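re: the backbone from monday

yeah here it is again, tokenized this time
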């Protein structure tokens, strides 16, 4: 449309290879050289209609295409700013790029989040640029004294729960216990050593954590006024995943250590800044990896201990799993050996159960149950204050002797004594009950749970399932609602189930209910529901839950895998039921399509938690629970009905909206599921739920329906590399519609993985062989550029009808790639297809003109021999010839100008434009040039006159055909 119009020259400056843009990019980089700033680029991903002339008028009805390719859209100053996370796709075409459907639109939220983050960082960065950086030697003891990047690095290591377990452990000073540790020979001898490993070991329930906390407090007290650093971490087997994993250990220890050692903080900040530059925001776009921090500790901590003594205390090592614990012990010994060999001062103390594989050497060990008998007497005696002194002395002695050093056993039995005494039970009966109580904790737990009444079995089992298998420990408010929700409940609203039998009126009543149902094995601790000890969880997972199932259902014992699967089944269904409740489905969420009032609704995430306590847990944990159900081999054929399929859109929309609201309230943007526009098929594909497909696939539905990210269910499965589900969908008829997906189709996947069998299966099933991924690449394009290249894969694609002329978003085709790489054998293979004729008439820069531009005479002659016609009229054709001529590639230019299937007038004009004057001078004499052509052809006189070559004009005028 712009050709021969004033805008034509301007549009050329916006081209992909424009010198103007290249110059501007260089100047922009120099003008905006702050390396601590960021440049984000947003680019279109949807195709726009193009202009085409119909009956002499231009209309936007041409073939759709991505108008601005990614390479042209992005404008980073450095290489890393031309890659994610600095480039972000917008799910719009060119004209709709900045026209969002509403505040709840995912792209709008993403752009807004990025802008807010940039604004927040900019304020800090601009300020920091004008501040003098402190010297490396200065001790940065407060946040205000610490540079922004270093403080951000330190905060990226921290996590909310890192001190939770240590804070929960009862301080021994409160009950006057653990003083014996101060005089224990192994502790006294270990403390002044330069290096060494100390073990605090004991049976489950012996009080190891209390002892460890006592030691940590004592070491810290003795370190005051010195330069010694004491850091600690308490594993928590009943806590969140990070509390029971090595990454939690490393992050917590480094967070404590680096705050005290500025040099180490500066070193890690370099890595932190690189990650931020490359990937974006810590905790959202990326997280610290276990291997990175492990390596940093190994290389830096032993060296740092040469300047300042370091003591590391780690509690409950066994609660991260035996295999992991074994690896951590080996790692700790290596750290100590490194420090010892280099003159460092590094000591480590572990507390752990008796795992022979962990402490086989002669490391000094403190066995808690051998030393704590007096402590047990003290604690039991203080708990039995209501008993008469004569009875109390006898019972304290009976309990203490039978406990054999197991604090947990003594405390539980003492609580039973208190309960019996409160009921007026005689002393002789209480004594007999103590004598009959099993010594082993697991037997004690079994005895307690055997007292559960038949009417309480179902509710008790539900409570244990939630406490055992919730993805994160539930808050008291969450458990309050979870106890009242059934997987098969008829209630349609929150009000209905709150009026039911199992909803506690307040947290105090909930605590009473939990204590009664669990027989004291579950408590609300610091606002969260937890087992009173790790040994309770161990017992339930080993056999307790199986016994409860057997007693409740009256059936044969279930396998542990089945018991776990049923727990996840009940929890996931309860969560889904919760999200379907009337109040949640109809609430006018702020920043969603249901309300235009920004002031309406939640002002913070706390407001949301208060209104719908289980909402956050449900939306982020349902996927995990249903995946665990599938892994347990339990069929999930109920999911379609549960999601009201095929009308599941409203439920999934609510789910997605809630997740977006939480992100908005937290001013962050994280990937979560479901993506806007998702359907049940996407859910099943995303989380590998094979067992629910049959019912859905038996009906006539759109198997290729895209979600808001443009992914079909098959594309979702391919992204997860779940070929089992991809094949299920393929067999059912998916993959036969044309659409653009970020990862492409199953054929793209087969090519990427060089899976010939899968490729043939996909082609036989009718998958579209020329489908394109987000970049516009077809499977054939991927096969051609693959290294190493598979001729078998290429042959199979060509035999299936793949078109080598399908262009990507940049206008490149497999043919162009082959020409650029001078692969004549492959070129001939690509041309021997049913698309050969259309390939010779390709639009844009043709393969022939690309060969000319490359100055490759062999390829030029081969393509001419294959019937390709030189393009001498288009801008790209003229540029290709000029570029080759400028580089002196006469051997590539002359075959084009002498080609028999071109208009001589065009060749004459082009020869003049590239200053091939001698060649042009010979053409009039041959009478090949028509000096007086039809209006649609090139006029030689115009070309000769504009060049200033008078003798050419004279020769043309002498031609008798000149009018």
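seq for it, each position gets an aa:
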């Amino acid at each position: 449309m712009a050709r021969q119009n004033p805008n034509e020259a301007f549009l050329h400056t916006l081209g992909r290879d424009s010198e103007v843009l290249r110059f501007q990019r260089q100047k922009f980089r120099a003008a905006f050289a702050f390396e601590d700033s960021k440049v984000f680029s947003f680019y279109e991903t949807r195709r726009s209609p193009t202009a085409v002339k119909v009956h002499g008028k231009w209309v936007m009805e041409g073939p759709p295409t991505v108008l601005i390719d990614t390479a042209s859209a992005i404008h980073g100053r450095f290489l890393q700013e031309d890659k994610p996370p600095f480039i972000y796709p917008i799910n719009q075409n060119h004209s709709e790029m900045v026209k969002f459907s509403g505040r709840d639109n995912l792209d709008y939220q993403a752009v807004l989040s990025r802008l807010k983050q940039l604004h927040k960082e900019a304020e800090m960065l601009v300020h920091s640029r004008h501040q003098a950086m402190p010297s490396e030697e200065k001790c940065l003891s407060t946040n205000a004294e610490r540079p922004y990047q270093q403080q951000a690095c330190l905060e990226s290591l921290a996590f909310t729960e890192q001190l939770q377990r240590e804070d929960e452990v009862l301080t021994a000073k409160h009950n006057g216990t653990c003083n014996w540790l101060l005089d224990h020979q192994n502790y006294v001898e270990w403390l002044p050593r330069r290096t060494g490993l100390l073990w605090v070991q004991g049976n489950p329930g012996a009080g190891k954590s209390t002892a460890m906390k006592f030691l940590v407090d004592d070491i810290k007290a003795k370190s005051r006024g010195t330069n010694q650093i004491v850091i600690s971490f308490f594993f928590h087997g009943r806590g969140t995943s990070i509390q029971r994993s090595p990454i939690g250990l490393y992050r917590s220890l480094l967070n404590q250590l680096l705050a005290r050692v500025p040099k180490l903080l500066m070193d890690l900040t370099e890595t932190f800044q690189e990650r931020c530059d490359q990937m974006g925001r810590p905790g959202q776009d990326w997280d610290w990896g276990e291997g990175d921090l492990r390596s940093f500790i190994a290389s830096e901590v032993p060296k740092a201990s040469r300047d300042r003594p370091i003591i590391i205390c780690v509690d409950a090592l066994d609660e991260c799993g035996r295999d992991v614990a074994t690896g951590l012990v080996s790692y700790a010994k290596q750290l100590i050996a490194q420090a010892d060999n280099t003159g460092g001062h590094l000591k480590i103390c572990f507390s752990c159960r008796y795992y022979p594989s962990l402490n086989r050497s002669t490391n000094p060990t403190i066995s808690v149950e051998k030393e704590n008998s007096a402590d047990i007497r003290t604690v039991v005696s203080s708990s039995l204050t209501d008993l008469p002194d004569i009875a109390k002395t006898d019972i304290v002695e009976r309990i203490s002797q039978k406990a054999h050093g197991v604090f947990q056993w003594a405390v539980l039995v003492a609580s039973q004594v208190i309960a019996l005494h409160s009921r007026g039970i005689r002393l002789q009966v209480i004594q007999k009950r103590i004598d009959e109580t099993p010594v082993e904790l697991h037997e004690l737990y079994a005895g307690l749970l055997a007292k559960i009444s038949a009417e309480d079995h179902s509710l008790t089992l539900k409570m244990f399932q939630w406490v055992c298998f919730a993805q994160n420990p539930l808050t008291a408010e969450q458990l309050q609602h979870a106890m009242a929700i059934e997987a098969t409940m008829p209630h349609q609203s929150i009000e209905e189930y709150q009026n039911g039998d199992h909803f506690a009126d307040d947290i105090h009543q909930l605590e009473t209910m939990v204590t009664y149902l669990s027989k004291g094995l579950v408590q609300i601790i610091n606002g969260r529901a937890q087992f009173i000890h790790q040994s309770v969880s161990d017992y339930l997972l080993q056999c307790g839950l199986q016994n409860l199932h057997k007693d409740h259902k009256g059936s044969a014992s279930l396998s542990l895998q089945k018991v776990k699967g049923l727990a996840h089944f009940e929890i996931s269904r309860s969560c889904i039921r919760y999200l379907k409740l009337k109040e949640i489905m109809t609430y006018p969420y702020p920043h969603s399509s249901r309300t235009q009032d920004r002031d309406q609704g939640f002002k913070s995430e706390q407001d949301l938690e208060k209104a719908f306590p289980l909402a956050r847990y449900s939306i982020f944990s349902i996927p995990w629970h249903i995946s665990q159900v599938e892994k347990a081999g339990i069929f999930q054929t109920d999911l379609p009905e549960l999601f009201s399929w095929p009308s599941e859109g409203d439920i999934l929309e609510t789910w997605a909206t809630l997740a977006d609201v939480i992100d908005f309230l937290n001013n962050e943007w994280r990937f979560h599921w479901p993506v806007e526009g998702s359907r049940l098929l996407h859910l099943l594909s995303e989380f590998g739920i094979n067992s629910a497909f049959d019912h859905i696939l038996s009906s006539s539905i759109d198997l290729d329906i895209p979600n808001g990210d443009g992914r079909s269910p098959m594309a979702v499965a391919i992204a997860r590399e779940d070929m089992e589900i991809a094949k299920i969908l393929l067999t059912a008829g998916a993959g036969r519609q044309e659409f653009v997906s970020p990862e492409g189709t199953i054929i793209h996947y087969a090519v990427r993985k060089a899976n010939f069998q899968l490729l043939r299966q996909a082609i036989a099933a009718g998958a579209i062989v020329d489908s394109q991924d987000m970049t516009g690449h077809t499977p054939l394009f991927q096969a051609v550029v693959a290294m190493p290249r598979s001729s078998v894969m290429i042959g199979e694609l060509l035999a299936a009808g793949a078109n080598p002329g399908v262009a990507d978003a940049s206008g490149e085709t497999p043919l162009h790639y082959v020409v650029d790489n001078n692969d004549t054998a492959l070129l001939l293979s690509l041309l021997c297809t049913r698309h050969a004729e259309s390939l010779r008439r390709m639009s844009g820069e043709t393969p022939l003109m690309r060969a000319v531009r490359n100055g490759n005479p062999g390829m030029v002659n081969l393509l001419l021999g294959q019937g390709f016609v030189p393009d001498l009229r288009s801008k790209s054709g003229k540029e290709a010839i000029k570029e080759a001529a400028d580089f002196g590639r006469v051997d590539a230019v002359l075959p084009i100008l002498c080609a028999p299937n071109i208009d001589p007038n065009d060749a004459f004009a082009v020869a003049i434009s590239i200053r091939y004057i001698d060649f042009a001078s010979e053409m009039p004499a041959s009478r090949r040039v028509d000096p007086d052509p039809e209006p649609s052809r090139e006029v030689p006189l115009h070309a000769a006159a504009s060049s200033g070559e008078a003798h050419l004009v004279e020769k043309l005028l002498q031609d008798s055909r000149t009018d």
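The longest helix spans residues 106-129. The chain has 47 helices and eleven strands.
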